[in-house]
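Annual report, structural modelling task.

Input specification for the S-adenosylmethionine complex:
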Amino acid sequence: MAEQQLKHIPVMLGEAVEGLAVHSGGRYLDGTFGRGGHARAVLSRLGPDGRLLLMDRDPQAIATAQAEFASDPRVSIRHANFSTMAEWDETAGGLDGILLDLGVSSPQLDEAARGFSFMADAPLDMRMDTTQGESAADFLAHASEKEIADVLWIYGEERFSRKIARAIVEDRTDNPITRTGQLASLIERVVGRREPGKHPATRSFQALRIRVNGELDALEHGLNAALELLKVGGRLSIISFHSLEDRAVKLFIRDHSGRVQGSRRGPPVAAAPARLAAVGKARFPSDEELSVNPRSRSAVLRVAEKLA
Ligand SMILES: C[S@@+](CC[C@H](N)C(=O)[O-])C[C@H]1O[C@@H](n2cnc3c(N)ncnc32)[C@H](O)[C@@H]1O
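The model returned the following structure:
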């Protein structure tokens, strides 16, 4: 599919950018540029002294950013995982806001050759950063049955994780699993169609994608780096798309908000000094947004502010 046909509709655009409380001379980081929906909205609020730093681990996203923003003196662009944001000298003076719109973009899902989708047959790749790391096919070629089952269970909550893992390991001796269509049919064969309106491979594909891209590790490192880089009063605005991500974000904000830790029955554990305050509660897409963009359905937005 031609790149120009592959669009991404930004999710919770107004709410996420409002969460950053952009001021015109501030310095902001969009760690997940994608196709720039949020970045454009931040930039429209910046004056000549403002700065916008753009990161994405996907070279195609970065090519889009270069094509559109390279000549804007307020913008700097870097092809990298946002987990490395502190290594970028542009972030050294601190940031007034950091936006992370997690997960994959529509162009990644819709371009069959990226190998994220079970809807079209293509090489089983699934890497956001196509310049490094191992593909989903590489992982399935060497991982043990237990490792595969654990990934499907932990990252996909796939009830048939063991059955699917066993079938993969049995099949791969004669037939290495190298294509999306091959994996989707294997899963369909093993578990059958069970949830109406949902392909039986949905959970397994999500799980493999999270594993291949180390998404939860990147999020954990990114959140820690963000906390250090934010200036006092700086904002964190994060959109997650599945419960594991949202849980990590929620606990990170809670753990740095100075609330007493420990279980209700156990002795209270002294709270660490508060460094972050949640701004409002978790927010979800409106009915109107859901009707226009069904891909927003699992989105959760959380905003937090760095404290003195
Ligand atoms: C949901 S899309 C972002 C869409 C964007 N906000 C827009 O409006 O076009 C997620 C993007 O984040 C990128 N991404 C995901 N995890 C990343 C990470 N750890 N580091 C850098 N980029 C990442 C993906 O490659 C993808 O382009």
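Strands lie at 27-30, 51-56, 75-79, 95-101, 230-240, 276-278, 300-306.
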